[in-house]
Amino acid sequence: WSDAVNESNAVNRSNAVNESNAVNESNAVNESNAVIGSNAVNWSDAVNRSNAVIGSYGIKRCEAVSKCIFCYEIDSAKLSLFNKKIDEEKFETVFSKIMSFEYLPNWNNFYELKGDLDWYRIAFPELMSVKNKTAWNKMPQEMKDYLKSLPEYDEKIFKEITEED
Q1: 64-121: pLDDT as tens digits
Q2: Which among 128, 132, 139, 154 has a CA at the least distance from the CA of 47?
Q3: DSSP H helical segments within the chain, as ranges?
């Protein structure tokens, strides 16, 4: 089984997962983190119920998106922030800042089960998904404040993605 996941952590009901973390019910996920119910996700973080996502963060219910940040229910998009078009420089600035917070939502209880154990010692039958709201609830306030300070910020999209009250 460890050969199949190939250096991955917290993989639950997923296929073709490579060098990824906290992946649940997903397929063809590579170099990605905190992915749930998604397909063909590559070099992306915090992706939920989306397909064909590349180099993005905070994506929910999107198809064929590349270099998008906090986008919801959009298709065939590139270089977008809260569903608004941006240029490459803006993307790199915002993406770098988001990555500096070192925060990823966690859609399962892997880290609670793991504790100080090696990943292969985990009781995988106890691994379970958590709700979207729970996955995002530990976002640092400083990160929230940064996102809200952006001119592209959209409260409705943010709440749709994070399910924050």
Answers
A1: 889 999 999 999 989 999 999 999 999 999 999 999 999 888 777 777 777 888 877 7
A2: 132
A3: 2-5, 88-100, 110-114, 132-136, 141-149, 155-162
